[in-house]
Amino acid sequence: MKTIKDINIDNKKVIIRCDFNVPMKDGEIVDDTRIRGALPTIQYCLDHNAKIILLSHLGRVKEREDLVKNDLAPVAEHLAKLLNQDILFSEKTRGEELEAIVASLEPGDIVLVQNTRYEDLDGKKESSNDPELGEYWASLGDVFINDAFGTIHRAHASNVGIASHLESGVGFLIEKELNALSVLENPERPFIVVLGGAKVADKVGVIENLVTKADKILIGGGMAFTFLKAEGVEIGKSLLDEENLDFCRRMLEEYPDKIELPLDFAVTNEYTDDEEYRIKKANQIGPDEMGLDIGDDTRSYFEGILKDAKTVIWNGPLGVYEFSKYKKNTDEILQFLVDNNIKTILGGGDIVAAATTAGLDQQVYHASTGGGATLEYLEGKKLPGLEAIK
Ligand code: AMP
In the CATH scheme, what is the homologous superfamily, with its name and number, of domain 186-378? Predict the structure, then answer.
């Protein structure tokens, strides 16, 4: 994969596709991890006297009201503080104002362009990779660097579109993500996959791809109940993904020694954090009960398997971690992996959020910034953002 280091960027106009899709509340940035994640690539461009043009999306833009709430201006201000230099901001995603700013750039200057998805308002031009838009943005620079791992599984004008017109490479953030994930191509064994979260549907491809490669797949979270139901166990009011019952049944039949299901659960009658829970064996869940976390026996059982692991990939929390009562076992197993120095990769989204709340995201081998991108990588799919660079 061509990286920024393989390209001569000295004094050139470098377009960097960043992932500034940060959580915002009332116009304030709630968590700037993603902005800080882009700094190494930006700093490298500054060190090479490049003229820097930054592009990013923020949220989704479907209607006019979405424009104000997804304005990238606060990111420009925040970036200015982090880099301790002025950041120019183009209110528009195209046109004379933007072109004039780009023409005025001196080496070391930075302009952030307004949210690329403003272009979605008029016919989804960004998200459908409108060829004219990609070509237009490419015309603003000399070199293209993609550093937005979170959208690498999508073909948008601001990544694939631009890459098809300019000399292109990946930035340091994407390089780091790919290096960490490449561990999984030839993992040190035992190689254990931990899967949780709500929907089986999202993980069918991952299970199919990893079941032949992994030594064990430990399943918790809401998705465990569809597997249990497929075995004929009554699951009460717990989460069920009817459409994937056959898939779960087939996996259990074909890989009976690989897939491990929970032995017990923390169950309650309502989906709330307010009620007391009881611990029930997996086959003793009552018709009015739902399991919201794995139980302690399951945790010990899973830890017994994980203690010998040399590589672990984990996607999806093992319980409703947003509720204080049902985050315990996800947190404890995360802590167990850290304490035992087990090479652990967290596959984006909710499990990284759970690790961050528990203060463990920096202690694992790698916490991936891209949920959907990581899942598609784990499914063994080709990622359009990377293919365009190749
Ligand atoms: P996903 O996007 O499929 O990875 O699902 C993440 C969500 O799964 C989180 O919001 C969790 O609250 C939810 N989840 C985890 N365990 C359970 C469970 N036992 N019942 C219902 N939802 C769960």
Answer: Phosphoglycerate kinase, N-terminal domain (3.40.50.1260)
Q: With a 6 A CB cut-off, is 241 part of the ligand 1 pocket? A: no
Mean pLDDT, range 309-321, rounded to an integer = 97
Domain at 4-174, CATH class: alpha beta
pLDDT digits (tens, 9 = 90+) for 152-209: 999 999 999 999 999 999 999 999 999 999 999 899 999 999 999 998 999 999 999 9
3-state secondary structure of 191: strand
Question: Please, where in the chain does CATH 3.40.50.1260 lie?
Answer: 4-174, 186-378
Within 10 A of 42 (CB to CB), how many other CB atoms are there?
A: 25
- pLDDT for res 27: 86
Atom from ligand 1 closest to the CA of residue 224: 19
Whole-number Å distance between alpha carbons of 148 and 57: 10
Q: Is 197 in the pocket of ligand 1 (CB under 6 A)?
A: yes
